[in-house]
Design goal:
Shape: elongated
Largest sheet: 6 strands, antiparallel
Mean pLDDT: 86
Strand content: 15-25%
Distance between the termini: 135 Å
Strand order of the largest sheet: 4-5-7-6-10-9
Number of helices: 32
Number of strands: 34
Low-confidence stretches: 206-224, 841-851, 936-943
Structural class: alpha+beta
Length: 943
Amino acid sequence: METKTFLEKVLSSEGHYCVFAAKSADERKTQKFYDSIDEVVNAARYFDQQGYDVYYGLATFKEVNSRKVDNVKHLKSFFLDLDCGPTKEFASQEEAIKELRKFCTTNSLPNPTMINSGRGVHVYWFLDESVCYEDWFPVAERLKRLCAKQNFLADPAVTSDAARVLRIPDTHNYKTNPPSDVNFFGLGEPIAAVGFDTFSELLGGEMIPVPTKHIPKELSQTMHNLMGNQENVFKDILVKTLRGDGCEQLYNIIRHQEETSEPLWRAGLSIAKFCSDSDKAMHVISKNHPEYTPEDTKEKLSQIKGPYTCVKFDEFNPDVCSNCPQWGNIKSPIVLGKRLKEAEVTDEGVYVEAPALELPNQPKTTYEIPKYPPPYVRGANGGVYIRTKNEDGDVEEKKLYHNDLYVVKRVHDPEVGEAIVMRLHLPRDGVREFTLPMSAVTSTEEFRKTLSSRGVTVKKMDDLMSYTLSWVDELQATSTADQAHRQFGWADDSMSAFILGNQKITPDVIEFNPPSNQTVGLFPAFEPKGTYQEWRDNLELWSDEKFVLQQFALGMGFGSPLMEFLNTNCGTVSFYNKDSGVGKTALLLAASGIWGDPEQLVLQKDDTYNFKMNRAEVMHSLPTGIDEITNMSPRQMSELVYQGTSGQQRGRMSSSSNVERYRGGRWSLLMMYTANTSVVERISMAKAMPKAEAQRVLECRVERMFDSVKDKETTDAFESSLLSNYGHAGITYVQYIMKNLQACQQIVWDVQKRVDAKAELTSENRFWSATITATIAGLLIAKKAGLHDFDVQNVFKWAVSDLVEQNKRNMTDMGGTVYDVLDDFFTENISYILQIKSTADNRGVHNNGLDEYVVPEQIARGRLIARYETDTKMFYVKPKPLKEWCGELQINYAHLVNEIMQKCNGKRKKVRLTKGTNLQLPASDVLAMKFDMEPDDENLEDL
């Protein structure tokens, strides 16, 4: 029979054909796929001439480049491999053929085609049709079982292996010396093919159904990691075997290698192959075998698909496994060598790159995974394991959690106390970092709740709790606790890091910032939304120079972090207009949108005063906007201005003890208000001359820039975009500052010199100076960072001229004299002042006893606080009412008295205020002064 005819009989006409060639002399191997039988024959001749052992795949394949069972398309034969030789299952080929004929006669099998492989015999039953692997495999399994049952010693590894290769006729077996011919036994005449169903019935009845099991195309990442965390060590199996609780089959194979059959030897190699020390184990189990050569052993190893089961060992060498204490408890001897494959930790550490779940601005982050505290170890592919020893000294390893989970550091919060930062690696999501209070670490229920909420799900939380406590002990012994960041903005005086939500921004990287009790609620506010480009495009609406006020407001958003360079804690601007819809709120939204969600960051009118101050403390370096403060009382407004610019919380006492409460951190930022009226004017309702407040806040009237009807669509779209695109510019901006820290500091200082010179500001105007300086410098630096294209020089000119001049005029209008103050006092208390002519010249004129009585021009009602003599222009005021009135209006009483003494001929004396009336009251202490309450008619305007 010709080789081509043979291959056409044994192979299907559909699919790709495979040729495998190996040269033992130089360990060369090659595998190629072809589309026709002719190409297979030509390839076989070529490789044979080159000194290769040539084999062909017994199946056809769906795709090229893969000779695996899952790629098998069709088969067209059943086959056996009979190994022959002094140490083989059959002493000679003649004996093998004799036993084969006996086997076929016993089972009524048709005559097969036999190939002389050079040493052994290859046996084929051709089928008259091609069959798929699912139909072929159970019949091949039955053939294998029948051979084993009748002690016909065909190689069981070949019989049901659809991806097996066997030698091609008319080639040579180069493993013998000299090379042996591979050819047909007998004349090699074609033998009739047998029907698939007929052959199946001859083997013993109905078709064996293929077991249905789900084999996923790809293992899950978790399963892949878990499998990668295990290794099998052959040395461990031998140790257990020598101790009496290992595998007796392997013991016999090693001790009696000379007498071991080839299938049993192969079974032993199947265990060695899948051990991490296989390079040594394969030779330990083989070196004394008569047919051992390093090359042949490697070849055998390459053909083994997986570790043999205990059932296979028992099939090859009965009556041994049944006495094993492990029989029925394990499926394969290889599990005796199973151990955890621990991750290697070098001096440089272990680093992995993964998405940062909590850092949206840092899609990929490199994490260093530390060495776990003993007895805990990390698997090679992650996970938490504990390694202990049992009573026999054997190492026992237990998986606590399949993902990486470890403690990064300890942090201390002044209010909450100590906490730990944990890091969780999730295979699909990325890396999540979270803070766990120490009180939760030591409470089983709190620990379970916290970890479960973060995605850690295990049946036994107690094991993970012990693991976490070991981390705490380790870190307490080796490191100091970091201070939890209770404020956003600059992390320290060196400005080396900037805290923005859960992000710690450094010049080149973004790290996770663990939450503190004070900051955690605002973390979501700093998650970006929309895109940077849409944010940038939206602000183009303000790019025209007529929007200089709007550009200034945006500059406050950039300028706030620069207040750290100045000697002022806080600068404040109040944007006001009595009308709604002029764009006041949009100013705050734009400035806050640089950093995060403006709706969450901008404070509202209903927020309490303490809430507003607490927010300023938390924001620390970030702009703080307060929308609509109009409804605040004048006194609350005054307090807001004073405390806001002071840069710190009020000092408070503890409610439970006589000790000071933690005051909180200082802030250094720019604050923005919106109102329907002037803040200073509102404060003046409760305070006569609020010059101090006016010096701490710049007031800016917002003019309407758009038509409320025609431009409504434009303004609506603008504000909608502000609320849909935010949080993209802040990181770029602060990283630019940190990378150019000295240059940015110099910009701030240079700008302040120019502002003070152009606006003619003095130390009294220090808050104005700092506010304008930080804003203009913020715009300059942001422009250098590529965040806008505004004309900053135009904004500068407007700020030092229009804005400053407007506020200077307000200060001038506020300047009042002692006469103005007394006039206000007289006017507000006119009902309590007795107005009467002096009685000094009436005494004894009429001699009727009524000379001392004068008809008052106005009688005091309710109470009497002062006497004004309309003819002599003398004003007599009780000190106490005047002092109370000054206190209410925050007028310096001592300074006012001094002015009265100098400019109103003031004196302290005793006077009877009711003199000239029929009410006789004793004299009382008064301030007496010359004061004309009547206006100068010449200075009155015509009404």
